[in-house]
Every structure is written in structure tokens, then in C-alpha cells.
Amino acid sequence: MIKGFKEANVYLPGQGIVKTSITWKDGKINEIKPEISDDLVKLPDNLFVVPGFIDKHIHGANNSDSMYPHFEDILNIAKTIASEGVTSFLATTMTQSEENITNALIALREYIEKDPKEGAQVLGIHLEGPFINPKYKGAQLESCIVKCDLETFKRYEEASGNHIMQVTLAYEQDGKELVEYLASKGIVASLGHTNATSAQVKEAAEKGATSVTHVYNAMSPLHHREAGVVGGAFVTDSLYCELIADLVHVCADAIDILFRCKGKDKVVLVTDGIEAKHLDDGVYSLGGQEVFVNNGVARLQSGALAGSTLKLNEGIRNILSILPRLSFTDAIDLATINPARNLGVDHYKGMIKEGYDADLVVIDKDINVYMTINRGNIIYKKDTFNL
Fold first, then answer.
1. Is residue 272 flagged as an active site residue?
2. Among the four 69, 135, 319, 350, which has the fewest Cβ within 10 Å?
């Protein structure tokens, strides 16, 4: 346990990188002031203290998946992704049978309510499917896809203990009532695995949708006679766009276009990580289907992309490498304050500010992670890093 850092390079909202001291108490940031305190840790001058990263779309890592209804699997994911600088995440489910989804939600509820401090915090649950369009199923199991249904969702909501924070759905699949309900409950309705028209995207946003799931992937593309979900997302200013920045799911030029259309404040970096993340190439599983990982790229037997093995700090690094006009702190925002705002937790997450959760990550200019802190607890420290 440590109480804070002295004379560190700290990323403060509205100020950028500031040389200051920071302390925390009872899991909250207590003081931020330049005065030196002898009982605080002094970091090397080449390191930076930034807000902890938030991954709102991740299925698994290190041979564990959120669909496995076991406490130990969720804890394994939480501990593993701490090395990426992740301090909180949404455990993301898949399109499977209602029984399997319900069992996963019950296990996630137990985990969230016990709230172990050894790894990254599970902020809540991201229900990806089963309310999607078979045409853009991606790696989701087609036999379990159903149209949007409010009563079915309410059963999931009850099983989760009201811990569902985001739902990925296809609005054109009878989604109006569900989107309106989600908006009324403060749950993020995210358009994904969808064949919606651009007009339907705009309508969904008017009804309360606020997000697009892994933009470009598993959705109707931009065409000059029908702009599709991609075009609708680009012209609807209120929508946040998730981005898998592994340079496999989306190429560099498409990422550049996304930022030119949406601006840096509406892009949210996610990993869509699967159980193969942090492991070697091989054969793994996702949503009950075999996944083949070759050179770090995960695909089904059909060749369809099946989530990713991307680490969130690597995604930030990739953005900086292809978009030099973005500053270091701009790139950090994509995995901190942007997801916090989209999820409605920006009043206590996503920034280094007095009274906010002491979720911090110590990195260098190349986004290598040296230490990760979740609500004041060190949950990861690089082996070669000595305090």
C-alpha cells in the first residue's frame, strides 16, 4: 500500500500534464497539490500518472470468458487486464441460449456485489446480443439470435441484479421499445451487429441510443446511395463510437476518417478482447464456437473476425502512431474520460480529480504500463519496476 506520489507528472483535467503531488485515502483521490510530502513515492521523471483505463467492451482474457459462470474466471480477467492499465471494465456477454446468458449474468452479479479489489473493477455488464441481426452476426451464434424483446430483457435485468450498463442491439429488429426503456433506466443502448439504415440510426438516437458498438465492424457500411449504420453514426453527433484500434478490424485510413467525422471526444477505445488475449497463438473458444488465433488475429473457421487479442494500452499506442495530430493526452482521453462519459460515470471515474476514485495508471510516453491502481490498491506492478 502506498498513499500517493510526490512531484509526479500528473494528467489533470483542463491543465494537461502538471508536476504535482497526489494522495488518496479510502479509495478516493484526497489531495492534489505541489507541496512535497516525504512519505509519498517519488516516480522517475520519464513516467506519467494518468487516469485508469476503462474497457467497456471485453469478453475475456487468459483462458477466461465472461460467459463462463464462475467467480474465478471473472477474477482472472480482472487481474490479467490490470497489466494493460485497465482499472475498470464492463464484463461482456455473448449471444447464446437464454439459459446460458442468465447463468452468466447471475455469476457476474455475485462478482460485482462482492467487489474483490485484487484486479480491475467490474463496473457492470455489457449485454452484446442476443437482440441482433443475423446478417451481421459476426462471431455471434446465429441459432440463438432473437429480435428485440423488452420482456426478455427484463428477465436478464433481474438476473443481473440491475447491473447491466450497456446493451448492443439491432434497432431495426423491433428495437424501438427496448431502446426507449434502456434510455429511461440510464442504460447505454449501443447499435451493433445491425443492418439499420442511416435514417434508423438517427431515429434510434432520438429514442435514446448513445453508442455504436465496434464501429465499421458487423454493421451496414457507408454507401453513396444508403449511408448505413456507419454513415448514420458519422452524422449523428450525439453517438459515441467504439473503436477496436488493433489495425486489423479497422485500417489506419478508416480510423482517420472516423476521427475527422466524429472528433476526438466521441471515440471510445475498446478491445473486444477474448479468452486468447495475453496468450500464444492457438485454438480457443468464443460464444461456443472455435476461434483460431494466428499472429495474434482471432478468426472463426469461416474466416470471420472473432473479437481480438488487443491490449488497451496497445490500442492507445496505435492511435498515436497513425494520428500524429492527436496529443498524448488526447489519446489517453479515448480510454478514460470518453468511456466514462458514455457510461454516465464521469462524476467519479475517468479523471484525476479530488473526490474521484483513485484509479490511476503509471505509464511512459510509449504507453508502456509500470503500475496500475484500482481505488487506491496496487493491482499491477511491472516486475522490473522498483518503487
1. yes
2. 135
